[in-house]
Amino acid sequence: MKRWTCVLAVVLATVPGLRGAWADELPIVGTGDGIELLRAIGAAFTADHPETVILVPPSIGSGGGLAAIGSDKEVLARIARPLNDTEKSLGIIAEPVVLLPSAFYVNPSAGVTGVTSEQLLRIYRGDITNWKDLGGADLRVKVVRREDHDSTLQVLRQSMPGWKDLVLTEKSKTATTTQESVDTVRTVDGAIGFGPFTSALGDGLSVLRIDGRAPTDAGYPSAVVLALAYKKSTVTPAAQSFVSFAKSAKARTLLSSMGGVPAAE
What we know:
single chain, alpha/beta, D-Maltodextrin-Binding Protein, domain 2, 9-stranded mixed beta sheet, two-stranded parallel sheet, 23% strand, elongated
């Protein structure tokens, strides 16, 4: 029986049409934080386990992912905030996977590659309104913010000097997902936004150094933890296998290569 299982796995891996017909799909729903990292881990897992195709659909937020597994609509979620007491009472478990530094990124048209912590405060308060005031282009600063409950904003309020009680400028656009923030900043001249750091941000964006430090440097001020969540009563063997893989040495190496910091064992 074991011999035939191995033969089937080889056939599924080498014949794409058959893999699509025979493989089971495992969606991982939730936050947009670290979505590129999870898709890369998912592809690596499927390469090793062709009987399971990992799907990482667009963001519905950490709360949406937790609601989906809490109501038994899904078995695995991706989250970027701690569980609350209600979620814990449902038997939901969160397994930390990777630490994502919180990055500030700008449209390259701004002409700025680094700022100080104080300058960031002044930008998000609305005191600095033109990039030329920071040595950049003569171009209006266009602030992209996140909703008050966003995981990265919460981390910034807890870790960045002056952010705890910062009132964000009203002259800003609110992005409801990480991907919306990235897409807006990438396409709007003079725009600045924030979100979890991954190496993919370098595609069409300038990731700012803060006080001379890049997001992956020691002493960088803030980060968010990306975790996989599931309910003990509904988790499947495939989902449990993926969670274990996401914390394996192979996955940790992949995460590090993409700018993430693997969570401690």
